[in-house]
Please model this.
Amino acid sequence: MLWPGEFTGDMVSLALRARGGVSVRRDSVADVVPIDLFDSSDDPSGESGGADLNAPLAVRMRPRSLDDVRGQREVLRPGSPLRRLVEGSVSAVTGPMSAILWGPPGTGKTTLAHLVATATDRDFVQLSAVTAGVKDVRAVMERAATNRSMYGRQTVLFLDEIHRFSKAQQDALLPGVENREVVLVAATTENPSFSVIAPLLSRSILVTLESLTREEVGEVIDAALTDERGLAGGYDLADEAREHLVAIAGGDARRALTSLEASAGVADGDHPFGREVPEAGIPLTLAHVEQAVARAAVRYDRTGDQHYDVASAFIKSMRGSDVDAALHYLARQLEAGEDPRFIARRIVISASEDVGMGDPTALQTAVAAMHAVAQIGMPEARIILAQAVVHNTLAPKSNAAYTGINEAVADVRAGKVQAVPPHLRGSGYTQASDRAKGAVGGAKVEGYVYAHDQPDGVAAQQYLPDDLHAELADRSYYRPTDRGFEARLQERWAWLRGRLRGKG
Model:
């Protein structure tokens, strides 16, 4: 709860400090000063010397302005609703818009809310959906209305984990958001379409935040190493240690900074007090990072030979039906920070190239996994990928469809592209229509046999161009194996060839 007591008779006013945070003017000593998680670690002057070293590194390094924000270039482009909200730029006909920030952890939801709060002369209130109830929401709304009417001050309400709010709690927000008595900035890691009521969504802009790229995470780490609010140049981070920090962050800036801070603590332990610090700073090695995060670095270069070697071994292990090896290489890629969407695409390809008609359901599983991974992300995506990998690996294998299309393409490239047989040509143009005959199944070009009119549903007629019809009497692009589902196709395939080619 923001204010544990009743609001009758007391005068409570929240005012932002110059660099975030809140101060409270009150008449009742019974009121408790609200805890502000946005309280900036730097002093009101903005000088680095005011940094609170007891605050977590991720808090100390919170961006002070939009220029310091890493990533989210699209939603923070000039003129975008979110940028205008942060900058406090309004016109005579447009006011500040409430916003719902949706994205994975560590993408800047809290940071952007902090910047909104500090942008202009606004009162800032924070509630957590985990602890606040309907009574707390209504109290904030009442106080916001009072501040607006008496002092002309607008209230910014930051609501974290809004997806945890019940429908009744969200309903309580509607009047204040509707009348702009409050500017709501809500954060959620779940799809708002399912977790936020429609009336609230319609009154807010939806801002989708993306995970930071590896380059952007690296920039966050580099800034923390040198900034006076951060490690202030006191550590010399090895390149391989930096790469490991970037990899394990998974696009989460907060995780990267937390891991960096923990690693620096381990490095301090290896540098006894009183020992002279090198000019470059205390060495911070890969071993320190591995010890701090209890996670070994995987030797894996996403753009070099190791990337292609591990990916190749992964595909070949699925093809070779070694499920343990396939899962091993899947784990190596994931732990090295490989894009799970890349892995999912490789699994889909393998489902057709290596499994094929041996088990047609493998492709269904792989495609479903690819879409699920894109929607869910890590770390849960590893489970979905593992299921698809196990399916591919254990399934009967057939590359008959793969080799079939390759041989067909080779013939086309070799110039075997004679005219389509007359009876197979389209009947929608004039010359064909003149030859069309009215028959069962609809109008058809003379000579064409409608397959559905045949007792067995197969019309014994020439489909291939003349040159290939003769050539493929003795060979076939598609040659089913005797494995899995494809074994059941062999008998029908042989019968069809006999019917269409005149031989089995």
